[in-house]
Design brief:
The protein has about 130 residues and is mainly beta. It contains 1 helix and 11 strands. The protein has one helix at about 110, and strands at about 5, 10-15, 20-25, 35-40, 45-50, 60, 70-75, 80-85, 90-100, 120, 125-130. A hairpin with a 6-residue loop joins strand 5 and strand 6. The termini are far apart.
């Protein structure tokens, strides 16, 4: 069982930055791929970014590409999502999700699918004001 806790959300003005953190429990974190998703008001949950456990390959949705980075610190069991140049369209609850330990995923289309992830955090609210 893996438990995930997100933090770092809040209220920020357009053009600002935030760093979200996803802390995981357990001793298998180094073999877990992690994704960030978000769900805005009246919208469906959508993929934002992800990082594989092997090779630390990263993936980004087109809507955040160039504005976000994702990284992991296996010693701290934590994945970070750095978001820059935020706009009002980024307002959403942000969730981190973890795949089962040891899962290999080669296609980004699978990596960005919520169905790939077994564990989910409770979410952290990000609100961007104009």
């Amino acid at each position: 069982q893996v438990q995930l806790v997100e933090s770092g959300g809040g209220l920020v003005q357009a053009g600002g930055s935030l760093r979200l953190s996803c802390a995981a429990s357990g001793d298998t974190f180094s073999r877990i791929s992690v994704g960030w998703f978000r769900q805005g008001p009246g919208k469906e949950r959508e993929f934002v970014a992800g990082i594989r456990w092997y090779g630390s390959t990263t993936f980004f949705a087109d809507s955040v590409k160039g504005r976000c980075t994702i990284s992991r610190d296996n010693a701290k069991n934590t994945v970070y999502l750095q978001m820059n140049i935020l706009n009002t369209e980024d307002t959403a609850v942000y969730y981190c999700a973890a795949a089962s330990p040891g899962t290999y995923v080669s296609a980004v289309s699978i990596f960005s699918s919520p169905g790939m992830y077994r564990y989910w955090g409770q979410g952290t609210q990000v609100t961007v004001s104009s």
